């Protein structure tokens, strides 16, 4: 702020306080019942009724408080106040305190792998906070996704649901592309796919349509989705044999995908989140989806008591 504008702010601020005090004291003279001397319509008089003393004193105290505040804290142009307080300094102190708390919380989780963190209530709480602040905008607060954004609470994973795959997805991001293959197919080929792919898991599907669809699928789609249609986690190609669809399913949704293609992107978070934050949010996501219990974690069979000799 320039010297001129700093002086302008100082003069206006202190001048307004002085003017309020002058107005207050100027109207405090006189005793109740006295008139100001103004008379209208022969007998209508204006009385001078000063403020009650407690109210008057309250105004004086507030004015003194305002002056004291401006002396101690910034508010008079470039004058920083005797205490030297600034909002930037206060913000930095708050950030430093928060950072120290977060470091202490993450230090307690050091050395644990993702499955272990997924079982730790404190780690899940930290991971959920990171998720809500950074991931919920796409995947939803309940992590169940939306059209074009995967549901993270089921066991259907485009790139794999292992701890390593989840960490890699969060760290480096993903880019999925489905080319518009329909424009290069004959009407008969498109019809064969549309009569089969949306109804892959339907046991009532006409065998003739299934056979024709499988033949066309092997020629057109199998290189990415696999000969069995169960997808390819290396490419991020989805499983087409279940009822889970990233984009709209059904005949209309599949036709739109075939004709127009699809493109989706998961941004990389390695430059936004710290490695500790990536680990806890990966653990939180891992905890949401069902996972088979490893053999080592299964409860041991009860020992058979030895029979008496």
Describe the structure.
The protein starts with a helix and ends in a 21-residue tail after the last helix. Helices cover 48% and strands 6% of the residues. The chain has two domains: 70 residues, no CATH class; 173 residues, Orthogonal Bundle (Cytochrome Bc1 Complex, Chain D, domain 2). It has twelve helices and four strands. The radius of gyration is 37 Å and the shape is elongated. The longest helix is centred in the first third of the chain and has 24 residues. The strands form two sheets. The protein has a two-stranded antiparallel ribbon. A two-stranded antiparallel sheet has the order 3-4. Strand 1 and strand 2 form a beta hairpin. The chain has 309 residues and is mainly alpha-helical. Helix 1 runs antiparallel to helix 2 and helix 8 packs across helix 9.
